[in-house]
């Protein structure tokens, strides 16, 4: 039996289900979904690539 991923909802969500969900998968993967039902996988990437992405988007303009 495979454990279900624990999804974390973005703290920048607007009202309703317009949100991004992130889940660290076993091993080195990070999963990203953009729907109210996070089972609709949109992207899977490495933890290193996800960390690089977050670093870039958090940079001031």
What features would you describe in this structure?
The chain is α+β, with helices and mostly antiparallel strands and 61 residues long. It contains one helix and four strands; from the N terminus they run E-E-E-E-H. It has a four-stranded antiparallel sheet with strand order 1-2-3-4. It is flat, with a radius of gyration of 12 Å. It starts with 7 loop residues before the first strand and ends with a helix. The mean pLDDT is 80.
- The H/E string reads EEEEH
Query: Biggest sheet: strands side by side, in what order?
Result: 1-2-3-4
Number of strands: 4
**Treating each run of at least 4 consecutive H or I residues as one helix, how many helices?**
1
Helix-strand makeup class: alpha+beta
Shape: flat
* Global mean pLDDT: 80
Radius of gyration over all CA atoms, rounded:
12 Å
Span from first to last CA?
45 Å
Strand percentage: 15-25%
Portion of residues within helices = 10-25%
The low-confidence runs, each spanning 5 or more residues with pLDDT under 50, are: none
Biggest beta sheet summary: 4 strands, antiparallel
Oligomer: single chain
